[in-house]
Amino acid sequence: ANPASSSSSIVAASAAPPLSIRDLAPSSSVVVAGADDLAGAWARFQKTPLWGLWESETFQKAFAPMMEEMNEAMRESARDLGRPGASWSVPASVGFALFPMLDEEVGLERPCIMAFVDWGDGGGGVELAEAMLDDWEKDGALGRTDLRGEVVRTIDLRDGDAEEMDEEFGDFGMTPDLGLDGLETLYIHRSGDRHLLTSDLVALEEMLASVEGRDGGASIGDGDDFKDTMELLRGPDLYGMLFTANAQRMLAAGEMAFMLATAQPIVSRLFGDIRAHAVGLEVGGEGDAMIDQTIAMTVPGPKSGLLGLLTMESPVAPPPAMVPTDAMGY
To answer: Is the CA virtual torsion 222, 36, 121, 24 positive or negative?
Structure first.
């Protein structure tokens, strides 16, 4: 028997029009991350030499015991969830966004998150995920609420376990205060073959409006900053973006306001008008590349400050003689 036959219990979902975080995240989003065609990227990865190495007889023999143990664990999990024979599928697309949301009770903006998994219309992942959520609800880990007559599951982030984890793995005050520790509840809703998650019911309502083709408001994908940044990343399979102006507005409303007001003029003089920072990954890129990584900064106007010292006109010079021929990087 070919050892490769036991290598995986994950299948790719069929190609249905996938959701994209660019169409769901509001225009005020600070952080956006997504994979608009994850199943396609997985399929392309399986055509790379790296996957061929994994499928080779040598690797399959070496990893066969571990893979069989993992596959059996997945089969047992499916049986426990009442879905014997079901397999997890690679989602068609996934996405995440962080953005400010107006709290009408206090009249202030507070951070909100949204995320989704679009399972596509051909995999078994959505049913297994739904069964898992049902199981967690039976165990009391999830609650329920109502939105337009539809069931929405809830996760209370204020319980003792969450507070204990925050105390044990806190950031020791070394990261910017975005107010995420103020998140109290997560809301999970299934819409067809998609699972949607937000930290605000109003945000979930707007997210559903966009998913269902109703007017969900202006999205981050409509803005020039997103379009320009995506062009710099050359259409990646996976991407993450931080929008500077939106981040400044969110930080200005929190405890970082004084520090931001002090540092912003200095940073602007040093680096100019940076609208976004981004990273993108492309699977099965040009030539022999298996994974291409692109890091970009979006500067729509003339480069100034330190960025003005960088130019594309100077040719890339070969490494100096001091760099050995077996160097891994330079």
So the answer is: negative
